[in-house]
Amino acid sequence: MYHWLFPLTSNKLQELYLDGNKLDGIPKYLGNLCGLIYLSINYNSMSVKFSDLMANLSSGCTSVALEGLYVSYNQLTGSLSDNVQKFSSLRHLLLSNNELNGSISENVWQLPKLQVLDVSSNSLKSFISEYIGETKILELHPSNNSF
After folding, report:
1. Which of 12, 45, 69, 126 is least enclosed, having the fewest CB within 10 Å?
2. How many domains are contained in the chain?
3. For 92-129, how does the pLDDT look when each residue is reduced to its tens digit (9 = 90+)?
4. Which residues pair with 93 in a beta bridge?
5. Which residues, including other chains, have CB under 8 Å from residue 6's CB and lie 6 or more apart?
6. Cα–Cα distance between 37 and 39 in angstroms, integer?
């Protein structure tokens, strides 16, 4: 892992862009960036479960303020799990071009502020939920899956 990231403990840091750095995982200390609003980790080499990624990010206070999570073009696996509910401020969740499978948890549809959901180009199998009509989603990108 990149050792220059370890000193990041600022509560003032609002945006962190780590695109294209060949990261293979998310260190737990990123969950302690209480002021983080946007985290972009597109185009890396993360081959972790989506639930593990979210658990690492929610291990501290990051889940409270995070509005944008951009994790496209990695190798995330698993389904869009229930632990996403801790991210109640999330507005943008972009997960395209990964290896996600299974279904989209009802908790994703129930995120109170979610406006953009991009799960295109994965292997998701279940998409429809009884809660989809109650969402605030303005942009939905489900193309190129296994529905």
Report:
1. 12
2. 1
3. 999 999 999 998 988 999 999 999 999 999 999 987 67
4. 69, 117
5. 27, 29
6. 7
Residue 7 lies in a domain: no
Residue 33 structural domain: 13-141
Predicted structure pTM score: 0.91
Residue 101 within a domain: yes
Name which of 98, 3, 123, 6 is nearest 46 in CA terms.
Answer: 98
β-bridge mates for residue 124, sequence order: 102
CA distance 14 to 36: 4
* Average pLDDT of the residues in 10-26: 88
- C-beta of residue 40 within 8 angstroms of C-beta of residue 66: no
Nearest Cα to Cα of residue 37 among 7, 60, 66, 8? 66
Task: For residue 52, give the nearest of 36, 34, 30, 67 by alpha carbon.
Answer: 30
| CATH number of domain containing 26 | 3.80.10.10
Pairing of strands 139-141, 116-118: parallel
**Is residue 2 one of the residues assigned to a domain?**
no
Residues facing residue 140 across a β-bridge: 117
Give yes or no for a contact between 77 and 99, defined as CB atoms under 8 angstroms apart. yes
